[in-house]
Amino acid sequence: MTEQPGTDERAPLVRVERDGVVATVVIDRPKALNALSPDVLRAVAEAFDALAAEGDAVRGVLVVGEGGRAFVAGADIRSLSTLTPEEGAEAARLGHRVAATIEAFPAPVIACVDGFALGGGLELALACDEIYATDASWFGQPEVRLGLIPGFGGTVRLPRAVGLPLAKELIFTGRRIDAAEAESAGLVTRRFADRDALLAGARATIAEVAENAWTAVALAKRVLVQAAGTPTAVATEAEVTGFGDAFRTDDMREGVAAFLEKREPRFTGR
Ligand code: DAK
What is the domain count for the chain? Predict the structure, then answer.
């Protein structure tokens, strides 16, 4: 989890903090406003892979940026500047692998944005299940100002989040919107006065989710991710498969039995 010599500081770029069932993935490169170099992207993927290996011990993940100024200010422009077309495509593949890892993670992932979430930073946030933000946050896809286009899922996930017309406007202009506008556009689920309130709110959501059957939450996430943007017939078939899979779990038997027996369920995550 270190940068290559000569490209940046050699400190760890991503760290994981644990608080009971809540894990926090901290992107820790504040001098570059947490910009996503290939090493940062790889470190994010490794962090999620390690957390996924813990199964139901992790019931939710918060993704935050260190330093109080930015969640992530985009792909690392310095790293991008030297890429060949082939290396650019390879970098895009790495970005998509990170997004796919987050989407496959079997528990909710909340992007906790406090400051700039631009370009690849907004795309990273969009790969999470929800975006919570402080009032001091800004969102945008400024790639066209650099002669680029979003390369990490922005053309796919931003329209799903805010609708095609606003996504086009944001991508074509590169302009930023503040947290209030992002909330009214449906991009931000919840808005907070400051970072402490943001993190407390996100942890409270994970605690609420953790009261439910881990298996069912994981299945619901899988179906929601599969269904997003696919034709209705394909999406409903994904739901049919997921609904059927719920019947393979002890949690489903327990949840239904508890309801019928008028008691609280005791979920085991199996
Ligand atoms: N990359 C590298 N360094 C960055 C950076 C970035 N994206 N953003 C900021 N920094 C660095 C600055 O260079 C500066 O470093 P020093 O000069 O101190 O060494 C330091 O962070 C502080 O930044 P500023 O001095 O500029 O701070 P300000 O408060 O004045 O401005 C800002 C903050 C966020 C408005 C400004 O830094 C800014 O406009 N940053 C660039 C934002 C941007 O254009 N982001 C989009 C990048 S393009 C792909 C995946 C994704 C993408 C493409 C491909 N693949 C997987 C292939 C997406 C592309 C992008 O994200």
Answer: 2
